[in-house]
Design a protein that fits this description.
Blueprint lengths: L1 H19 L2 H13 L3 E12 L2 E12 L3 E8 L7 E5 L2 E6 L4 E4 L16 H5 L8 E11 L2 E10 L9 E7 L5 E7 L5 E13 L2 E11 L6 E10 L11 H4 L4
Length: 249
């Protein structure tokens, strides 16, 4: 009887942990960390690096779950006031000099965002790793001395995803995405997103610097640095509206 009790308790422990580390839960937790939380306001510096030049941008970002996000460009002056909005799978762009709000078609999500190494999809998170992919938990690995879950994601049939597959490497302790590899339909590695400078901001442990590197373009990269994070915010769905795009400051 004693042996049975020990065995039964061990079974509960193992199955309980299996639920905690299911691929879906890992991905959801990692996406929350990338956003800063379920609801968050962030200020970000973005540096576009090329072999012979570089330039910087300043952004403000508001997010609510996976359905709503808003991004305002505050610098440089020529792009100041431009806004990108995602609301319920629809993406909109406001350009002040034209005083016009334009809906971005699905095909535009794969295009470069503002000349960076990121796509429009990266910025507004139009696709969701939880909903738009089938995922497989692979063998654990170590990156930068951090033990990581390794998960392979294959786009679901009919999903609007530009990659053939994605591999993400998630810190097993804090669920921070340490590395994200994007592959084309031929299985060739195209883009790498790496995370650095992990620290506490506003009580949340996150990677405060992200670096996107296109594999085939030597000397090209885009660096994103989180300068401010506030997770003690509550946004009404009405905040993420086309009418509000022109009011942001």
């Amino acid at each position: 009887m004693k042996l049975f009790s020990i065995t039964f308790c061990f079974f509960l422990f193992v199955t309980g942990n299996a639920q905690v580390i299911s691929p879906r839960e890992i991905i959801k937790k990692s996406e929350d960390k990338l956003r800063g939380g379920e609801q968050a306001y962030t200020e970000i510096k973005m540096e576009i690096v090329r072999p012979n030049w570089s330039r910087t941008m300043q952004l403000k970002s508001w997010v609510k779950g996976t359905s709503y996000s808003m991004i305002l460009i505050t610098e440089p002056a020529r792009d100041q006031g431009s806004v990108f909005l995602k609301a319920d799978k629809q993406v909109w762009n406001f350009i002040p000099k034209f005083n016009r709000i334009t809906k971005l078609p699905p095909a535009a999500m794969s295009q470069s965002w503002m000349g960076t190494d990121l796509t429009n999809d990266d910025l507004v998170k139009e696709s969701s790793k939880v909903d738009d992919f089938t995922y497989t938990l692979l063998k654990d690995t170590v990156i930068d001395d951090i033990v990581c879950f390794q998960i392979e994601l294959i786009p679901n049939e009919g999903s609007n995803v530009i990659w053939g597959k994605i591999k993400i490497f998630v810190d097993q302790k804090d669920f921070i995405t340490i590395r994200n590899e994007r592959y084309d339909e031929d299985g060739d590695l195209v883009m790498i997103l790496r995370s650095f400078n992990i620290k506490l901001m506003n009580g949340v442990k996150i990677a405060t610097q992200l670096e996107m590197v296109p594999v085939a373009k030597v000397g090209h990269k885009t660096i994103m640095t989180i300068e401010e994070l506030n997770v003690n915010v509550q946004f009404d769905n009405a905040f993420f509206s086309k009418q509000n795009m022109k009011r942001l400051k």
